[in-house]
Methionyl-tRNA formyltransferase
Amino acid sequence: MKKITDARPKIALFAYSQPGYACLEELIANKANVSAVFTHIDAEDEGIWFDSVFELAKENNIKVYRSKKVDEEALKIFAASEADIIISAYYRAIIPDEILNAAKLGAYNLHGSLLPKYRGRACINWAVLNGEKQTGVTMHVMTAKADKGDIIAQEAFPIEINDTGHTVFLKVSQAVRIIIKKYLPVLENGTAKHSIQDESQATKFGRRCPADGIIDWTKDANTIYNLIRSVTHPFPGAFTFFAKQKLFIWWAEPILDSVLREKIDYTKYKPGDIIKLDDKVIIKCGSNCLLLKKVAWEQQPDKLPNDAVFKSTLKTGAHLGEVLIESE
């Protein structure tokens, strides 16, 4: 007796990271006919915080291949999969046209923004960094021009003021599940409705690297807070320098307490100056101040800013800056 999935269109999934894992898990839950999965070899220099697409596929006896890019072996496995539909979810390499054009029922990507806004790379981190109040996931047709194909579906959700890049990633993963569950039937029967993207609303952002996490204390406290929460754990982090050492600010918050704010004489301090009030460590910004909550020297564990390890450094009169600054 054939499996119930044998009569359904075959799906080749290109997936990685937590949204990719969520996509495969939802396809399995909906008994989709996944004939092959393509994923990546984990990079040795990347902290892997997300679940493994490779392991999930193996556990469910699905043909799976991992590589850095779509190589000759991937092309052979794809041809053997006889896929009718291609779905991509956070796959990091370019999928060649010869694969995209082979899917009779179409090739679709799940992108972590509400297209046409936030095309490009690191769209989740950029959205948090820019203080956006909302983002989401878009399923769109894959074309030669990245992130520009017709929209099939969108699932929006709010970015709360205390969300981080990580928590928004998890929300993206949940939105992927919702879209797959709702739109898998129309992908399989070829009746998905297409909407052309409005190019006048398009924005595009590039790849981020660890060096982009440097803090400019002349910016306002809210802007710096958005940087910190966009790249805090498990991402590379926001940092500054003190006494020739890199200091990571893993969490901090703008001072909203009016009583605490009244205790600070803003005219006495310049951006980057440290202000110690009781057990609180505060940094003057371009406007307002940030209350440090969790910090660490490079490659050291997170600690509270009033921990003994910072007693001789994080004190009133000291200064944090973009460049290496000698303490007095």
Summary: The chain has a mean pLDDT of 93. The domain at 4-205 is CATH 3.40.50.170 (Rossmann fold). The two ends are 80 Å apart (CA to CA).
